[in-house]
Design goal:
Mean pLDDT: 87
Shape: globular
Radius of gyration: 14 Å
Helix content: 10-25%
Number of strands: 4
Number of helices: 2
Low-confidence stretches: none
Order of helices and strands: EHEHEE
Largest sheet: 4 strands, mixed
Strand content: 25-35%
Distance between the termini: 23 Å
């Protein structure tokens, strides 16, 4: 909330809501997947302005995206601490 930052997940993974019998209340966090799988299958997306600062508007509001939607992000990829993947985004295509 309050910033244009969100996580994308490899589309090869199934959301917990797609798994029969799953009781996860927030299936978009993929809580049914092992943490090691999630580390290898996610990227943090940050929408930044010209100075490189994160845009201070909720991504759901700014980009009209919802949990579990498929998006294509354009930007520069960086490796963070521990090898995590981060994308400094400049554009997004939200798949209908």
């Amino acid at each position: 909330e309050g910033s244009a930052v969100f996580t994308i997940v490899d589309p090869a993974l199934k959301a917990c809501s797609d798994i029969e019998g799953d009781m996860c209340t927030t299936p978009w966090d993929y809580c049914c997947e092992p943490s090691e799988t999630m580390k290898k299958s996610t990227a943090l997306v940050k929408f930044v302005d010209e100075e490189g600062n994160v845009v201070p508007t909720d991504a759901r509001e700014l980009l009209a995206v919802k949990e579990l939607q498929t998006v294509v992000v354009r930007g520069k990829a960086q490796r963070g601490e521990g090898g995590s993947l981060m994308i400094l985004a400049r554009g997004v295509h939200v798949q209908e």
